[in-house]
Design a protein that fits this description.
By secondary structure, the chain is α/β, with parallel strands linked by helices. It has 2 domains: about 180 residues, 3-Layer(aba) Sandwich (Rossmann fold); about 200 residues, Orthogonal Bundle (N-(1-d-carboxylethyl)-l-norvaline Dehydrogenase, domain 2). About 50% of the residues lie in helices and about 10% in strands. The protein has an 8-stranded mixed sheet with strand order 3-2-1-4-5-6-7-8, sandwiched between helices. The two termini are about 30 Å apart. The protein binds nicotinamide-adenine-dinucleotide (NAD). The site of nicotinamide-adenine-dinucleotide (NAD) has 23 residues, from helix 1 and helix 4.
Length: about 375
C-alpha cells in the first residue's frame, strides 16, 4: 500500500480517533467520519489536546502539522479519494454491513476496506460488498496509539496479495502486525479467554478469593494485572460481551462458557472501575487485606495451563503461526512471556498433566487438552 494514500476512518469513538491519530502521525492525510456530529466534535477537541501534549513533551515536532492532515466529515462522500478505509463503529454486524456497502459505492475499485471489529466475522462483512476481495480485518488494541499489536485478518474472500502490503503499512505506522485466520476472537480475544474464565471459575468454587487470585497472578505469574482487576478495568459490558460472543461463535464450546457471576455484574450495571463498582467496590477506601498466598502455585498453574492449551490449540488449527501467537500475547495483552515459550519451559508433559488432572476431577469437556499438546508431551517435543 502506498505510503501516500489517503486514509479514511469510520467512527470517531475511542478506537477510531486513536487509529486516525496513528495514521496522521505516520504522515497520511486522514478523513475522519462519524454520523454523530457531537462525537466528531469531541474527537476533534480530544485529538487537538492529545497532539498538543505530545508536542509539549517533545514527542512530535508540530501538533499543527499533524492536525492539518485531518479532515472531519459528516458524509461518506468525503472518502472518495481514500486508498484505505478503517471502520471502527458500533459492534453490530447488520450496521457494519450496511456501512461497508454504502462506503464501497463512494470509493475507487482499488480502495481497501478494513474493519476493526473485535468479534464479528470479517467474511460476513465482506459478503455485504460487491468487491469482497478488497475487504480485510485490521484489529487494533486499546489505546490504539500506545498498543503495538495489529491483527491482520484476511476474510475467506480477501485477495491474498493484499496481506503483505497491509503488514508493511502497519509496520510503517510503528505497529507490530500478526496474521490471524478469520475465526472467533482472532488470536488475542480467543487465547486470552481462560485468564478471565478460569479465574472466575476458581472464585465461584471458593478455591480462592478474588484478591488471592489477583495476587497470585501478579506476584507468582508475573502478569501486570490480576484477572478481576483487569476485568473491572476493561469493563464488563466489553469483557462479558466478548466472552459471550466467542462462546456463541464457537457453537457453545464449553471451553469458552461465560459465567453467571460476571453476567450478574453486567445486569446490575456494576460495569467495573468506570461505574465505581464491579468485582471490587471502588467507592470504598482501599484496605490492605491480608492475602493468603499458600495457593499461588495451584492458581497460576491452573490458569496458565489453560492459556497454554488455547495457544497450542490455535496453533494446531492454523489460526496463526507459532511466532505470531507469541507476538500477539506479549504485545496485545502484555503477557510476561509467550504461551508456547511458557509451555516449553514447563514442558508439554507438565502442562498436559495439569489439564488431565482437571479433566479427571471435573469430567468436563472444558478441560480437554489439545491433541497437539498431547502429541508434544508424548514425543517430549518443544514448540519453539
Ligand atoms: N474499545 C475497545 O477496547 C476496542 C478494541 C478493539 C476493537 N474495538 C472495536 O472497535 C469498534 C469501535 O469501538 P469503540 O470502543 O471505539 O466504540 P465507540 O462507541 O467509542 O465509538 C463508535 C463511534 O462510531 C460512531 N458510529 C456508530 N454508528 C455509526 C455509523 N453507522 N456510521 C458512522 N459512525 C457511526 C459513533 O458515533 C461513535 O463515535 C468496535 O467494532 C469494537 O468492537 C474496540
Amino acid at each position: 500500500m502506498d505510503q501516500y494514500i489517503i486514509v479514511g476512518v469510520v467512527g470517531s469513538g475511542a478506537m477510531g480517533a486513536g487509529i486516525a491519530q496513528v495514521a496522521a502521525m505516520a504522515g497520511h492525510q486522514v478523513v475522519l467520519y462519524d454520523n454523530n456530529a457531537t462525537a466528531l466534535e469531541k474527537a476533534k477537541a480530544n485529538l487537538t489536546q492529545t497532539l498538543q501534549k505530545l508536542q509539549e513533551k517533545g514527542k512530535i515536532p508540530s501538533a499543527d502539522d499533524v492536525l492539518n492532515r485531518f479532515s472531519f466529515a459528516g458524509e461518506v462522500s468525503a472518502f472518495a479519494k481514500c486508498g484505505l478505509i478503517i471502520e471502527a463503529i458500533v459492534e453490530k454486524l447488520e450496521i457494519k454491513k450496511a456501512v461497508f456497502a454504502d462506503i464501497e459505492k463512494n470509493v475507487s475499485d482499488t480502495c481497501i476496506l478494513a474493519s476493526n471489529t473485535s468479534s464479528l466475522s470479517i467474511t460476513s462483512i465482506a459478503a455485504a460488498c460487491s468487491r469482497p476481495h478488497n475487504v480485510m480485518g485490521l484489529h487494533f488494541f486499546n489505546p490504539a496509539p500506545l498498543m503495538a499489536l495489529v491483527e491482520v485478518i484476511p476474510a475467506v474472500q480477501t485477495n491474498p496479495a493484499h496481506i503483505q502490503p497491509a503488514k508493511e503499512l502497519m509496520q510503517r505506522w510503528g505497529k507490530t502486525p500478526v496474521v490471524a485466520k478469520d475465526t472467533p476472537g482472532f488470536i488475542v480475544n480467543r487465547v486470552a479467554r481462560p485468564y478471565y474464565g478460569e479465574a472466575i471459575r476458581m472464585y465461584e468454587e471458593g478455591i480462592a478469593s478474588m484478591e488471592e487470585i489477583d495476587n497470585a497472578m501478579v506476584q507468582s505469574g508475573g502478569f501486570k494485572m490480576g484477572p478481576f482487576t483487569l476485568m473491572d478495568y476493561i469493563g464488563h459490558d466489553v469483557n462479558y460481551v466478548v466472552t459471550e460472543t466467542v462462546f456463541l461463535s464457537f457453537f457453545y464450546d464449553p471451553r469458552y462458557k461465560p459465567s453467571f457471576s460476571q453476567k450478574r455484574l453486567l445486569e446490575a450495571g456494576w460495569l467495573g472501575r468506570k461505574a465505581g463498582r464491579g468485582f471490587y467496590n471502588y467507592n470504598e477506601p482501599a484496605t490492605d487485606k491480608i492475602v493468603d498466598n499458600s495457593n499461588n502455585t495451584q492458581i497460576v498453574e491452573r490458569i496458565v495451563a489453560m492459556l497454554i492449551n488455547e495457544a497450542v490449540d490455535a496453533l494446531h488449527l492454523n489460526v496463526a503461526t507459532a511466532s505470531d501467537l507469541e507476538t500477539a500475547m506479549t504485545k496485545g495483552v502484555n503477557y510476561p512471556k509467550g504461551l508456547l515459550q511458557w509451555c516449553d519451559e514447563w514442558s508439554a508433559a507438565r502442562c498436559l498433566a495439569i489439564l488431565d488432572g482437571l479433566y479427571d476431577t471435573y469430567h468436563e469437556d472444558r478441560y480437554r487438552a489439545s491433541v497437539l499438546l498431547r502429541r508434544h508431551a508424548k514425543e517430549s517435543k518443544r514448540f519453539l
